[in-house]
Known about the structure:
The complex is a heterotrimer of chains A (about 325), B (about 280) and C (about 200). Chain A has about 325 residues and is mostly helical. Chain A contains 14 helices and no strands. The longest helix of chain A is centred in the N-terminal third of the chain and has 33 residues, at about 5-35. The model of chain B is unreliable at about 225-245 (pLDDT under 50). Chain B has about 280 residues and is an all-alpha fold. In chain B, β1 (about 160) and β2 (about 165) form a beta hairpin.
Amino acid sequence: MSDKQKKQTAVKLSGLYGDYLVMLIAPIMLAVYQYGARALAVVASGIAGAVVTDIIFCLLLGRPFLLRDLSNVFTGAAIALMMPAGVPFYVPVAASFFAVGIVKVPFGGSLRSPFVPGAAGFAFASVCFKEQIFDYSYNSVSKLMGEHSLGYILSQGKSVHLDAINVLDILSGNVAGPMGAGCALLMVACCAVLLLKRKNSLITVAGFIAVCAVYAAIFPRVNASALTSVFLELSSGTLLFAAVFFLTDYASVPDGAVARLICGGVCGLFCMLMRTIGTYEETVCFAVLLANGFTPVINSAVSKVKGRAVRKEAA
Amino acid sequence: MNKTPSFKDVFLKNAVIFNPVLIQLAGLCPVVAASSSLKSAVILSAVAFAELIAVSVIASALLKKLSRWIRVPLYFVIGLVLICPALWYVETQTLAVLTMSIKIFIPLIAINSVVAVHCEQFAVKNDVKTAFLSSAAAGMGASVVFVATGALREIIGSSSIGGILLNLPLSFKGMTLPFGCLILLGFMSAALKTFIGKKHPEYSAVHSSVAAKPGDELNEKENVSEKEPEEIPLPAEEEIQYSVPEEYARIRTEEEIEEFFKSLGLDFDEKGDEK
Amino acid sequence: MKVFTELFIVAFYTVFVQNLVLSSGLGISEAIRVSAKPGTFGRIAVMISGFSVVTGTLCGLIDMIPAVSGVSFAVRGLIYGGVLAAVFALVAVIAKFLFGTSDKFLSTLGIAALNTLVFAVPHINNHAAYSLAGCVGSGIGAGAAFVLAALLINKGSQLLKENEDIPEVFKGTPAMLFYVAMISLAFAGFSDTNIFG
């Protein structure tokens, strides 16, 4: 790769992840508002873990460390925001190390990795530190349902009677849960930003949410109406956050609208299946990784079908 | 004239340069699925080592003239006949305590791909002595990986070694799962690749492909030195769908492509999406 | 209906919840090697399903014999291995002498029949105490799990081949191992326990 191309890559990296970081400011501020300075410290530890890991690997591989590569900052911050505010600091550090050292660097960087580093980092942390990752007791006295997250309530098959007040609590993230990913209203705002910046990548998100909603309506985990089930499933945990920030990932998003829609749908199906029969309360990151694995298959299948259609038309 | 290779050459080639697990990706199942502790790794590697040598020697002595499709099942049957009585003896006649997972996986070693791959690539093409040496070397190479992976997985994943607690401040449960093992193997493979690249650069090109095997380096050399320029087949008439106007046929560089699209009033990003 | 439901549930469990190849590591070497030959892995998956179903069911029937149910793991391994070898021998002889298939086809048959995945299926059936319908479902699921793994690895390896930015030290086998590791991690979302405990 020529120096010129390297520079182009660096500029794009900073622009691309700069936009994501701007979108992350609001969730970080909300986390600080709800959980205090500790939320900021957790985010900082996630970012530090990612940046230091990248520096170490750059030194080991004899590659220049690009300060403008904001993907590390984004990955570290996103991972931290999906965790509870009371999580021990080594958890986001370890997750960021995994994301950068094992998912980003060996595959040639953020623009080349077939898997979303942040999703992989969080999935790794879920497997290794299950108790710490899903312990939402920190500063949760004033929250709706106390220290129990929506994800936990749903996994126990318990119903939540919705009224105007608690609907607003749930939408604004006033429920025990991931410190920066619980506010559904903010995620909708982030979608609006993406609509302006990278509207095509939102097709994957649309496919994902549509399938999650349909699944939740058909197979509710709670003894309530289909609409309540859809509302609770979509608002719980990191579902919307991961959809907005990980499913729109530049490197792993499929080519073309149809492939993106299918990929989002596949991700949604796996996410809901894992929620229903899987081991973890939060499954969206596993589903994103699985969808990343399916992306080349979907790309290839869609291009084959398109090729056949073109040949038919030509004939 | 066939020159008998020295043990050093045989060892280097079978244990290091074409390590069965890290380079040829054979025998991953016992490592990934069952070697999550040092004890299990030592047991499985010992069984695999003994089986590989025994089957290789038998294959070299008796099975050379058979067809491949008959030989491969025979490796399995021979392995099974050797392993199961030994396991039965350990289970019933000794006081050794084996976990259920190990008891199930020991017979599975009989069908281990290290044996089939090594016997087919080496044992049936060489005399008994060379087959013995090569299988011992390959077995050692595989065993070292088994034991190192088992030890590392137990230390990192369970914070213990050989069942003795180490009281490390952190443990990563993921390392005891298959994905953790695959990551460890990935790093070990990268380290081995770097070592080979420095000490034996002639094999570097071969190791850039997945599951390289002995003989690939010869093809690689042929590709470099003797390969004729390939004739580019002309597409059949019915396959030609589009014709390119002459003024655009000269377009080669990315900048020219970009300009071409801009001249048409279209603007695309790298993914091919319209901006 | 109950039989089909059990068959489907076991097959689904074997493909996704405890994907025998990616979550459990059974037959993973073969999946990686076969994935390099995209034209063959569909055929191999069908063969694996066939051998798993037949061997698993026969072994399941043998397990019902009271004298066999309490035997040691070594004897059980020998019985299951013997059944697998016999099934392969029978199929190979029929294919060779009745249908005149080539040696190449028989070698492919050997890869499909004689691998850890197929040999592990009777052990899994016994461990999980599946009924006969469950044994059939487990066998079908094993083949489907294999084809899913081979397909994902095949497309992933093409992606890795085209990726020039992979650092030299990770090119080839290391990158492939990391790729498979990531898919395996994704399947951990369904189940994070090792097979056979």
